[in-house]
Amino acid sequence: MSEMIRDASTGAPLEPLHERLAKNPDGIVERIAREYGVSTLAVVESLPPAHRTLIKGELFADVMKELESWGEILFIVHTPDIVLECAGSIPPGSFGRGYYNIHGDSPIGGHIRAEACSRIVFLSRPFMGRRSMSIQFFNGDGEAMFKVFVRRDENRELKADQVAKFEAMRARYAA
C-alpha cells in the first residue's frame, strides 16, 4: 500500500500527480511543483503524453537556431520571485566563453549556459482555459531555465505560422 501524497506546504492529502493532471492539465506548473514538493520537470513529465514531447538538452543550439525564424515570441523566465515576460524575436546565437550568447535587434538578449540544459520540452496544453504552446528548457535540477511561447494574434488566438513551426519541430525532434 502506497503512502498518501501530501501538499508540501499544507500537509493536506493530494491525489497522485499524474491522476490530477490527467483530469485537468491546466495550471501553473511551478505552483503545482511546489504543492507536490517535486521539480517543475517532474510535473511536466507527469502530464499526459499528448501534451508533452521531451528531447535531449544536447539539442539546445539546434532548437535555438530554429527559433530565430519564428518572429516575435514570448520569452519567459519564471523563478520563485518573478515571472519575467519579454516579447521579441530570438536573435542569432553563438557560443563563446562558456555561454550561448544571443544579441541583436531584439529586447531578448543575454548569455545562457547551454551545457546546463538537460531537457527540452515541447508543451501543448490548456493554460487558464486556453490552448497554449511552448518550448521549455530545463536544467539538471529539473527547473525551467526559460520558456518560449507561441504568440497570440489580435483575437487572442495562437499565431498559425508559429503553431505550424512548433508542430513541425516537435514531430521532427520526436522522431
Assigned CATH architecture = 3-Layer(aba) Sandwich
What is the total number of structural domains?
1
Unreliable spans are none
What is the percent of helical residues?
A: 25-40%
So how many helices?
5
Strand line-up of the largest beta sheet: 3-9-10-11-4-5
CATH class: Alpha Beta
Largest sheet: 6 strands, antiparallel
For CATH, the homologous superfamily is named as: HemS/ChuS/ChuX like domains
Average per-residue pLDDT, rounded, comes to 92
Class computed from helices, strands and strand pairing: alpha+beta
Backbone shape: globular
In terms of DSSP E residues, the strand content is 25-35%
Task: Give the termini separation.
Answer: 38 Å
H and E order:
EEHHHEHEEEEEEEEH
Radius of gyration, taken over Cα atoms and rounded to an integer in Å: 17 Å
| CATH fold field value | Heme iron utilization protein-like fold
Number of strand elements: 11
